[in-house]
Amino acid sequence: FDGSAGYYAPTSTSINLYNEAMHVDRGNLWFEAGHTPEEGLNAVFRYDFTTRQGMKGSTSWGDTDFGRYIVPTFININEKRHKVSATLSQKRESDKWELGLRMDKGEYTNSRNVHKRPGQVGTDRYLTHKEGRDTDLFQVRGLYVNRLNERVMLTSAVAQTKIDTAITDSRIYGPDYDSTFDLLSPNRQYRDHGYYGLIGESNMTQTVGTISAMYTPNENWTVVPSIKVENINGDSMAVFQETNVSSTKVSSVTELNSVSDRSWQNISESLSVRYKGYENVVINFKAVWYQIEGDLKEQELEHGTVELDRLSKTDRKTHKYSATTNWYPAPGTTVAIQYYNKGRQNKYNSSVDDTNTSYPAYLTQQEFETNDFNARLSWRVNPMFRTVTRYDHQESTISTQGEGLGEVESSKMTSHILSETVSINPADDWYLQATVNYVWDQMTTLAAQQTGSADGLVLNSDNNYLNFSANAGFVIDEGSDLYIDYSLYRAFNDFTDNWSKSVAYGTDARRFQVGMTWIKRVNSRTSLTLRYSYAKGEDSAFGALNDYKAQQVYAKVQHRF
Fold it and tell me: pLDDT tens digits for 362-387?
């Protein structure tokens, strides 16, 4: 992982606090055993032990004395997870069934580490946010598939999952990482808001049931309706010491207790239809609907007295309609055209807290809508030459309504994606393939349209780039092959120097890599792989500080027993 952070172009300032070449080690030890005859009862047991340990960079950068958040920060990761699963299944002539059991136990003690105002007299301090989790998961599930006759097949499934989590967290400012809380901590600042000694737990139970049918009245029609019902119930509690610093730099500690209860009900339906009645044409239609209702009750108690009592109700409706046509005008040629519309409407209804001093739910409604059109042409010109061309056009909008305000279009994203793949296979002993993707993408928001003192603080976001890759393979002799690959990434007009107003936006990155791989098959069980590659990256948006050149030599010996 790259642990570097931001760059302040007006003064060519970057901050380096530690070795930024970070990494995370992952481990996986597993064991699996099974008895799987072609006929009769199948049984499979598996155990996994996985770990993650190390450091990675964080995008929650620290601040500086000139009002810019460009200080590098890092996350310490220490995670362990045990997973046990077992299944029993049987497949018969007209039906099959499966029963499954899964148990997970996870432990992790991660921390987010921020150095604020490094090197500044009177304000230099450290923030360590520790996150401790012990999680126990237990799941049972079942599946049954029954072919009633040649035209109808039914599938049903049910699962219940229970997750219990113990929480131990803290967020402490101090003179170093992993400091203990001190009321008189040096360099403390106004609004250094944190907590320590948090002990809590969370419990969640999820029950899901689905049933679907596949109906094929004749060779031209296939209809698949389905329905899913889901119920989620959970509760959580936490006790902790909240810390704060006043404008006069006086630290305070308040004992708080928070509890919450949540309940969600989700019903979703879907309908898929396929028609093949036209010559060389296949038409597919699919519709999906979701209806979600949920309640969230929250209470916060200060020294045993209720300070916040809130009940939030959410009503969410989602739909997605898609239609796809595949046309096969000639052998080796396919034309595919698709359109889909996806929409979601969220409604929020919350009561005020007991103190009547604030309204916790500013948003009352949000609507999300996406329209996408794409077309693909696959053409096998001859046995040696094939091409695939694709174009996507997508528009997404977000409309938001606040309490007492009218509905506005708060965000809009427009994307154009053009891609081309060419495959050449002129002889049995070599091939060449190249792919290019060109993307024009822009997101606009109401914040970018503000005038006066807010003019230029937030800009539209552009994400225009080119991805190109090419690879070739050659047969050297009966036991060895040679492969050559090349890749290029180039951002176009994405970087906007906005330091005079707020922060710079976008990137001006350029990266390429070229490599060569030789594979030698010594015998039917043993092979040797050698690879060399060279890579180069540049990004002027970071003042060339993140530019690099790299070489890699790789060797592998593989033996199959």
Answer: 788 999 999 999 999 999 999 899 99
Q: Spell out the residues 6+ positions from residue 373 whose beta carbon is closer than 8 angstroms to its own.
A: 338, 339, 392, 393, 394
Neighbours of 479 (CB within 10 A): 12
Asked whether the beta carbons of 504 and 539 are under 8 A apart, the reply is no
CB atoms within 10 A of CB 185: 20
3-state secondary structure of 452: helix
CA distances from 430 to 471, 480, 530 (A): 11, 12, 19
508, pLDDT greater than 50: yes
Exposure string of 259-275, with b = 16+ CB inside 10 Å and e = fewer, is: ebebebebebebebbbe
> What span, in angstroms and rounded, lies between the C-alpha atoms of 242 and 198?
9
As a whole number of Å, the CA-based R_g of the chain is 29
Residue 358 has pLDDT above 80, yes or no: no
Backbone angles phi, psi at 406, to 5 degrees: -85, 165
Contact 132/169 with Cβ under 8 angstroms? yes
Query: Which positions ≥6 away from 451 have C-beta within 8 Å?
Result: none
So what's the pLDDT on residue 353?
52
Look at residues 341, 336, 211 and name the one whose alpha carbon lies nearest to residue 287: 341
Q: What are the structure tokens assigned to 416, written together?
A: 């154009």
The closest alpha carbon to 69, from 21, 127, 156, belongs to 127
CA distance 496 to 235: 45
Determine contact, residues 75/23, Cβ cutoff 8 Å: no
| Helix/strand/coil for 178 | coil
**CB-CB contact of 450 with 458 (8 Å):** yes
* Mean pLDDT, rounded, of the chain: 93
With cut-offs at 50, 70 and 90, classify the pLDDT of residue 355: very low
Q: Which helix (H) or strand (E) holds 440?
A: strand 430-445
**pLDDT tens, position by position, 85-111:** 999 999 998 899 999 999 999 999 999
Residue 18: how many other CB atoms lie within 10 Å: 12
Nearest alpha-carbon partner for 317 in 369, 279, 362, 273: 369
Quote the CA–CA distance of 278 and 326 in Å, as a whole number: 11
Integer CA distances (angstroms), 210 to 148, 266, 528, in order: 18, 12, 48
410 within 8 A of 418, measured Cβ to Cβ: no
Count other C-beta atoms under 10 Å from residue 451's C-beta. 7
The number of residues making up the chain comes to: 561
DSSP of 289-300 = EEEEEEEEEEEE
How far apart CA 260 and CA 203 sit, in angstroms, is 11
**Residue 501 dihedral angles phi and psi, to the nearest 5°:** -105, -50
C-alpha distance from residue 431 to each of 472, 478, 481, 482 (Å): 6, 16, 12, 11
Token readout for 89 is 């299944």
Taking only the tens place, the pLDDT of each residue in 275-284 is: 999 999 999 9
